[in-house]
Write a structure and sequence with these properties.
2 domains; alpha/beta; Rossmann fold; single chain; five-stranded parallel β-sheet; six-stranded parallel β-sheet
Length: 348
């Protein structure tokens, strides 16, 4: 299949990139033998604009996308986070290529109101939308043109390439890690500040991006993960069904034991003795102390998590699922995150 993937490619970061779910999707598509053409709306707009001012290149980026569709003739167009591309342009794509399926993938949380509006906007003109929140939370998007699906955050073996579950504590200098640079829609740093008071005296607790510790990107982020024994998977808000930031896959795929709030209900999706769930702060502190003192248990749980993600929530299956659901082909695998839906995205 010929797939046109429209998403930000981070070209102007020159290696100081964030781990990208869009890049993982591209890798998965290629591994499934699809011919993939990428189109980075923000970069094209900047390249085409006078003086490189991106906002002045928006119209040109939309025209360039239509030129790309005409030249490439895709069977599937995946519109990711590409806000510079208008719905009118996607409608023009449909007129140019009536047999091309058009879908939207959205990896941002629903507690950000502007993202809810963004999804509703795309659902008006696409055949399907894929959202990184559990399907039971997505009923507000039903009734539009688009079918509605949940999608996970996958691991990619070339990205999540470490296995810290096989490494003893003595060779992992960071006992506990939390990386973040976002303060919007969250109070999680208040809890982490209290945790640091209790845990800093007994372990090396790194909080890159917070408390005067600079954020880490690209290779520096890789090195921080490679040195870490355990990690906190704190979302900006908790209690959203099957929602987690991409941090869950980054920790899991690298064999880093992670602690996450029980209210996300990931115990329905993942096997027992993988993620460490907590309800209250005191429970979390106790669990961290327990696994810090029992390295064999830490390694066993982290190994089980890593194996499950690499086998069942990887970029190849992720891309395969999006193609099958997006084009209404029969599911070729019992995707663990799609057991509660029909092929058309409706709940069973």
């Amino acid at each position: 299949m010929r797939v046109l993937h429209v998403a930000y490619q981070q070209l102007k970061r020159y290696g100081h990139t964030r781990v990208s779910w869009a890049q993982k999707l591209t890798f998965g598509l290629i591994k499934n033998d699809h011919l993939v053409q990428t189109f980075s709306d923000r970069d094209v707009a900047a390249f085409e604009a006078p003086f490189g001012i991106r906002d002045l290149g928006k119209k040109k980026a939309n025209r360039r996308l239509l030129e790309t569709v005409e030249a490439f003739e895709p069977d599937l167009l995946i519109a990711g986070h590409c806000d510079l591309i208008t719905n009118e342009t996607l409608e023009a794509v449909r007129a140019m290529a009536p047999n091309c399926a058009i879908i939207h993938c959205n990896n941002d949380p629903l507690f950000v109101p502007s993202n809810v509006e963004r999804i509703k906007y795309r659902a008006k003109v696409t055949d399907a939308v894929f959202i990184s929140t559990g399907r039971r939370e997505l009923t507000q998007f039903e009734g539009s043109r688009a079918r509605v699906y949940h999608m996970p955050n996958p691991v990619e073996p070339s990205v999540e390439c470490f296995d810290n579950s096989a490494i003893a504590t003595a060779d992992l200098p960071i006992d506990l890690i939390f990386c973040s640079n976002s303060q919007n829609f969250t109070k999680r740093l208040e809890m982490i500040a209290r945790m640091k008071e209790q845990l800093d005296p007994i372990m090396d607790f790194k909080t890159f991006g917070s408390f005067n510790e600079p954020p880490v990107w690209g290779r520096d982020y890789d090195r921080a993960l490679q040195a870490s024994k355990m990690g906190l998977n704190f979302n900006r808000q908790e209690g959203v069904d099957w929602y987690s930031s991409a941090r869950m896959a980054q920790l899991a795929g690298n064999g880093i034991l992670q602690f996450t709030h029980a209210s996300g209900r990931f115990d329905e999706l993942l096997p027992a003795e993988t993620l460490v769930y907590f309800q209250e702060e005191a429970d979390l502190i106790a669990s961290i102390r327990e696994f810090h003192a029992d390295d064999a248990k830490r390694q066993a749980w982290a190994k089980a998590t890593r194996e499950f993600f690499h086998q069942e929530i990887n970029s190849t299956l992720y891309a395969q699922y999006i193609v099958e659901a997006g084009t209404q082909a029969a599911f070729s695998h019992p995707y663990c995150w799609a057991q509660d839906i029909n092929l058309d995205g409706t709940l069973k």
